[in-house]
Amino acid sequence: MLSLAQPLWAADSVELGATTIDSTTPTTTEKSQTSYQAVASTVATRTETPLIEVPASVNVVTHRVIEDRAPQSLDEAINAVSGVKQGNTLGGTQDAIIKRGFGTNRDNSIMRDGMQSVQARNFTPTTERVEVLKGPASMLYGVQDPGGVINVVTKKPQMTQATSVSGWGTSYGGGGGQFDTTGPVGDTNLAYRLIYDKQQYDYWRNFGSTDQEVVAPSLSWFGDDTTLTAAYEHMEYSVPFDRGTQINTTTGKVLDIPRNRRLDEHFNITTGRSDAFNLTAEHRLNDDWTLKAGYGYSRNYYNDHQSRYISANFTTGQVTRRGDATRDALQVAHTATVSALGNLAFAGMRHEVLVGVDYMHNDRTLGDLIRNVNDTTFNYNDPVYGQVPVPSRVSAANSDQTDLLHTHALFLQDAIHLNDQWILQAGLRYESFSEYTGKGRPFVVGADVDRSKAVPRLGLVYMIRPDWSVYGSYTESFRPNTSIATVIGDLAPEEGRAYEIGSKFQNDYLTASLAAFTITKKNVQTSATCGTETCTRLGGEARSRGVELDVSGQLNEFWSLTGSYAYTDTEWTKDPILQGTPLDGVSKNTAALYLTRDFGHVGIGDLRAGFGGRYMSKWGANDGTGTEYWLPSAKVADAFVAYRMKLDQKDLTLQLNVKNLFDETYYVSSSGLGSPAIVIGEPRQVIAKATLAF
């Protein structure tokens, strides 16, 4: 396989740790620097485990896939993985991934090198690969929804000197550039890495632009028995706050207007800055025991303004909007972990024992909440922008929104190799958690939760052959029931339970998995009428069940592929309003297939090209009253071509990506209950990139 459009060191050094995911050789996770195949992961066990021995659904989007497809967001990076889909991104300002029907923004499910992340955008220029674990994961990571977790693994310092400089442009207008250098510090065991990236490009709709700057230094020290890594990333950003288009409730379809026409104002912008710092240490005590420790700091500060759509007269096109804003929004997460991994022999069986403690402190505060009066001067058929002022009226009752979540836990896991064919994996986590929420001036407490929860996990793997296994598992999740807006006190947490069976195949070229699952989420908050008041009860229950198929790797020395199919059937099984309706934003059928061909030496360099697409069936958005609006199915194709040649003893790679090749109009997510805003998929985009590596 030929390596095109990537730094030569990009997939090196990818050892994975327990809670933190550290760095070692390229074959520990990815088959090679040029392969679509992943062979191991830590996200599902917190130990480096071959995928074929994991009793869970795990997908790894390798660095090669990322380089070829050139995604610009986290949901785009993983859109070929089965059972995942973009969720409510708060107008494109936050990562939000639905996993097996569950998930939204700020749901604790996104990690960075195994640590809790509160970054608005976790897919950054430092991303090496992305790992996806589907199904409940609270035994491993504490407070979670039952859909799964996503781990973004970053690039690490290398002991081999290498540098790359790249620049790119987009057909939307604008582009960006990146500088990436790594190598040893003198003759020491210390290695450095520095990544700088600047992007400034136009938004695809009728106004708006993205401006993003990232600087990310890191250091690693490699001793005989000890490895230390310190990594920092700072980002400053300004992005459009665009909730998309709207449903015409008289026709049940999206508004019949050009897809690039915005319904808000030029001041719909989110500006912010984020910081991420990870410190990890690993020490081998002896041949049997290894100690690991990590600390993660994640911070996101932002301000936003928007002209919020409230309603519309669908006969005249007149829109009721309200100027809203948030000032001094801040979310900070501290994560710490210490664990010991032992490889032991006991009672004639091999044990992979993991024992440790976790601590997490996640605080989110919103300062001034601004709420202007309603305005009706805008018409979606004949828009005139700039007639409303930038919002400035502070709402004391809605300001100072606060959500403070603190947890500490003890966990124990044992992967018992009963014999050469049977592997029993059992784990238990005991977690104490407290959450305090509320808002207003004066402050009104919404929830004050202080509880503990024991969470088990059980899995069994049978190795039919070294390259073929079957498995079954039972897993659980939990999440505190809290509310900023409504006083609910201390309620029992939401609980998720899942059963899964599956089969995996993994040889030297391909990794494939087939899984069937059912997930039930109970103790979901619901609103009910208590006399003349609205009260909150634990009466809601949701169910998701389905089948997933994933395959990635090489067909032969010329062809690589990544593909998936998912059938996901969701339903609110208990709810005063939503019972019998599907969960928002979930397509019952999704599929993806991408093929890449290495043509070898053509002319003065090496040629590589790929083509593929994805399909999603219709999906629903509920208005909160039980009325379901259906968005149509879609088929979206992408293609790329890359050519690598020598330029003055350096590797020059030229790459062209075409996204949404046939310019399909499609819809990807909604903003949830109320008047559901519908996010439109991006139209055709051409991206040209040049990379010089030396």
Helix fraction, binned, reads under 10%
Q: How would the global form be characterised?
A: globular
CATH C-level label: Mainly Beta
Q: How many discrete structural domains? A: 1
Under CATH, the homologous superfamily reads TonB-dependent receptor, beta-barrel domain
- Number of β-strand runs: 37
Q: Tell me the major beta sheet.
A: 22 strands, antiparallel, barrel
Query: Structural class of the secondary structure composition?
Result: mainly beta
**Radius of gyration using CA atoms only:** 25 Å
Hey, roughly how much beta strand do the residues contain? Answer: over 45%
The low-confidence runs, each spanning 5 or more residues with pLDDT under 50, are 1-27
Mean pLDDT: 92
Q: Would you tell me which CATH topology applies?
A: Maltoporin, Chain A
Q: State the helix count.
A: 3
Q: Compute the separation of the termini in Å.
A: 20 Å
What's the architecture, going by CATH? Beta Barrel
